[in-house]
């Protein structure tokens, strides 16, 4: 019995680490499970994508005042849901579009070309107004004043639209084309609404009476 105890004692002295390790493994690795421990720690890696730097696009703006088409064929014609507003009518359409640009792979503009303007401009006078007469000249002057108002609204909104486009491009670095198109659509509506208000101030009964009086006085002076 003493001899057996002595042998066990010698074995423990010769292989102490293996015996201790075996005991640890029995505690750390219960039956049916495998636990892998790694004591080596390298540099931490992050799976999150690195954000792209914010890009401020280079913006160029073209303002198109348009070229009017003059019409003098019909005695009567529709104009703003009315008929022959004093014998004349001026029609315009506002527009604001992305003309071109250069984009990154992420969909952000590096360069952006914007075009704001008037299109389909028509200045129509009734064929009942004879060229060279006072009334023809007065009505034509009235319609050209309308055209000047249209252009003033356009020029007044242009800097505001450019600023809004840049702000949108800086706030959103993805899907910029879609977002900017929505901004331009909204401003086109706002320009048209403001234009209607400004031009409605000219088309009054008093203004038409004033035009006729001017011509009556002119004819009297000629006699």
Q: How do the strands and helices of this protein lay out in sequence?
A:
Elements: H1 2-14, H2 16-28, E1 58-64, E2 69-71, E3 78-79, E4 82-83, E5 88-103, E6 109-125, H3 134-171, H4 176-200, H5 205-222
Parallel strand pairs: 1-6, 2-6
Antiparallel strand pairs: 3-4, 5-6
Brief summary:
With 223 residues, the protein is an alpha/beta fold. The protein contains five helices and six strands.
Q: Could you explain how this protein is built, in words?
A:
This protein has 223 residues and is α/β, with parallel strands linked by helices. It has one domain (58-218). The protein is 48% helix and 21% strand. It has five helices and six strands; from the N terminus they run ααββββββααα. Strands 1, 2, 5 and 6 form a four-stranded mixed β-sheet that branches. The longest helix has 38 residues, at 134-171. The chain starts with a helix and ends with a helix. The model is unreliable at 4-8 and 18-50 (pLDDT under 50).
- What class, by secondary structure content? alpha/beta
Indicate the multimeric state.
single chain
β-strand amount: 15-25%
- Give the averaged pLDDT, no decimals: 77
Tally of individual domains: 1
The best one-word shape is elongated
User: Can you count the helices?
Assistant: 5
Q: What's the β-strand tally? A: 6
Please write the string of helix (H) and strand (E) elements.
Answer: HHEEEEEEHHH
Distance between the termini: 155 Å
């Amino acid at each position: 019995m003493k001899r057996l105890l002595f042998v066990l004692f010698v074995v423990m002295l010769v292989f102490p680490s293996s015996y201790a390790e075996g005991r640890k493994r029995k505690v750390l690795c219960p039956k049916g499970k495998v636990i892998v421990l790694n004591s080596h720690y390298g540099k931490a890696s992050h799976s999150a994508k690195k954000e792209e730097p914010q890009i401020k696009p280079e913006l160029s703006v073209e303002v198109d005042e348009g070229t009017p088409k003059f019409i003098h064929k019909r005695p009567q014609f529709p104009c703003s849901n009315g008929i022959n507003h004093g014998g004349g009518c001026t029609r315009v359409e506002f527009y604001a579009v992305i003309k071109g640009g250069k984009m990154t792979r992420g969909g952000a503009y590096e360069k952006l070309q914007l075009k704001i303007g008037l299109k389909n401009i028509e200045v129509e006078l009734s064929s009942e107004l004879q060229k060279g007469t006072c009334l023809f000249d007065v009505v034509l002057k009235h319609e050209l004043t309308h055209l000047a108002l249209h252009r003033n609204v356009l020029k007044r909104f242009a800097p505001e639209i450019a600023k809004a486009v840049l702000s949108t491009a800086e706030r959103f670095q993805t899907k910029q084309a879609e977002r900017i198109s929505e901004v331009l659509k909204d401003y086109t509506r706002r320009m048209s609404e403001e234009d209607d208000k400004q031009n409605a101030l000219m088309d009054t009964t008093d203004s038409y009476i004033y035009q006729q009086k001017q011509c009556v006085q002119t004819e009297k002076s000629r006699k």
